[in-house]
Amino acid sequence: MGLIDGLHTPLNATGIYIRTLIPDGPAASDGRLRIGDRILAVNGTSLIGADYQSAVDLIRLGGGRLRFLVAKSDPDISEKISASSC
């Protein structure tokens, strides 16, 4: 799963967003996460106001089973996240 800071997208908004899903990876295989979804928390730890590196570290150190709280995106947001060159 690839993440991006919303400030580095055409959204120009704070937040950590899903930019890519690796085919056959755990997140893609699960089917509930989509490109453009905003990750609000990982394993109960809020990402509101967190920077990109803190979010990545939290996910990497989160263990074999992660729980995400996400805000689902609409197609417009997904398109803007996908089009980002960062």
UniProtKB/TrEMBL annotation:
<dbReference type="InterPro" id="IPR036034">
    <property type="entry name" value="PDZ_sf"/>
</dbReference>
<dbReference type="InterPro" id="IPR001478">
    <property type="entry name" value="PDZ"/>
</dbReference>
<protein>
    <submittedName>
        <fullName>Ras-associating and dilute domain-containing protein</fullName>
    </submittedName>
</protein>
<feature type="domain" description="PDZ">
    <location>
        <begin position="1"/>
        <end position="74"/>
    </location>
</feature>
<dbReference type="InterPro" id="IPR051342">
    <property type="entry name" value="PDZ_scaffold"/>
</dbReference>
<dbReference type="Pfam" id="PF00595">
    <property type="entry name" value="PDZ"/>
</dbReference>
